[in-house]
Design a protein that fits this description.
Strand content: 25-35%
Structural class: alpha+beta
Oligomer: single chain
Largest sheet: 5 strands, antiparallel
Strand order of the largest sheet: 1-5-4-3-2
Radius of gyration: 16 Å
Helix content: 25-40%
Number of helices: 3
Distance between the termini: 39 Å
Amino acid sequence: MGRSVSYPTGSLVAFRLLDDGEDDDADWVYECLVDEIIDTTKAAFPSFETFDGWRGREDRILLRNAFADCGISTYCGLAAIWLAPRDDARFWEADFSHPRAARARHWIAQVAPRFERMFGELRMVGRFSNGEVVFERQKSCI
């Protein structure tokens, strides 16, 4: 089966190519994108705080608020910038006494258009049976 960029199940995802020209250092390009995601997201959604964590081995959490994690996953020059409902023990413990899961899904749905405008350069068109994915460039709203 083919491989594509990872992202948490059920997340809102914006795709972007990592600019990896001949003169660019891939690590530097990645770190610049991480800084951009953190700065842009915190400016647009002030409830987020910087967070250093992982979901599994491939999905890096950069920011967290009461409802969601915001992170990045990369593979072969493609970055998936995602928002996903929190899935940690503290969230589920709080959800038990004051249900938050439905509010988390609602909050993500509310911010989805803005998030996609901020970070989406590519749109997933489809996926082949071998797992390979086809993308198209987003149309700019000029």
